[in-house]
Amino acid sequence: MKLLCISNGHGEDRIAVRILKALQAAPGAPDIAALPIVGTGAAFQRAGIDTVGPAQVMPSGGFIYMDGRQLAKDVQSGLVQLTLAQIRTAKAWARQGGAIFAVGDVVPLALAYLSGAPYAFLGTAKSEYWLRDEAGPLPDRPWFEGWAGSVYLPWERWLMSRRRCRAVFVRDGLTADWLQRFGIPAHSAGNPMMDNLQPAAAKRTQLTAGLPEAALTLVLLPGSRSPEAERNWQQILQAVDSVAAAYAEKPVAFLGAIAPSLDLAPYSQALLSAGWQSQASHYPTYQKANATLRITQDDFAECLDLAEGAIATAGTATEQLVGLGKPAFTFPGEGPQFTRIFAEVQARLLGESIQLLPTPEATGEAAKALFPNVQQLERIRYNGQHRMGPAGGGDAIAAWLQQTRWAE
Q1: Residue 273: inside a domain, yes or no?
Q2: Pairing, β 132-133 against β 136-137
Q3: What is the rounded average pLDDT of the residues 251-268?
Q4: Which residues pair with 133 in a beta bridge?
Q5: DSSP labels for 51-89?
Q6: How would residue 66 be classed by pLDDT, with cut points 50, 70 and 90?
Q7: How many distinct structural domains can be found in the chain?
């Protein structure tokens, strides 16, 4: 059997890789390739998964739905021609008898349908928590956000209900239950986002060496796309200053979890320009008054484990932190990803686990109000674990893909 994974985003690529690696490790694994339709598929390449078809980095980074101007820039850069070529690649795969696994949103789902091949879909982009929770519809939502009866629109549900669509996987039980009301066999099989987040004891010890016995430790998550992440970092440093000022009588520690693909130089320079002093350490470490800030590009799981919460302007990384039962403080950035719209949608998705603040400078007082509140922290712990779901989704979805009778 031949399986083509169509994925449309850097975070979606990483989720797909977890599933495909589990699938490759199973006996009788299919021949696997990937068609990344946003970016060049670096996550697949690092994992040793072959990519097929054309690939190109677009100005929007895949976030054209956040801003119509980004769509115009992408069209000018050849988006239409690229999409047509990717459709031809998917159809060629189908003619060879292959199946398709679409990961992301309606775009890879539509490509899977247009290919003519049997397909499965993992919806990473939407959740019914945008519109409702277990108690019912969220208050004060505009009528047009719920007009379709589900966060998934009628044409998306149509694509998921075709006979060639062998299965639909969604990110939480509430979304699965809601889609089943429309006759779609949706499953919530665990969340692949939460896989592989177990900290390594040796790395954890090394990361904390020399840090103060801090009253508060926060992880800093600026995102993974340059130059947006560098702009976000400037705002995060304003939030860090506000937290240090709010806890002026105690030491505080910050762990900057910077994506491996990013150049550290702008982050270090921003710290020096903001008055931080470099310290001798195995990791880039900086001191300013009562605050210590350490940067790492290789200890993401350890940073999430050590932190009591996050200052975050990221997508997937923020959701993973919340899924571990921890709170995040966030504020809108300039985009193209982390705009006010994105931040508001993320806050609805993650509920009480996210505090969406008007400015970075509000972070200190928000943190000082939250962390002594044991009851609220316990609600946040339950809420995050419930909304994001358990680990193990990668293995569960891989097992289903392996057992599917695609030729029916």
Answers
A1: yes
A2: antiparallel
A3: 93
A4: 136
A5: B-S--B--TTTT-GGG-HHHHHHHHHTTHHHHHHHHHHH
A6: very low
A7: 2
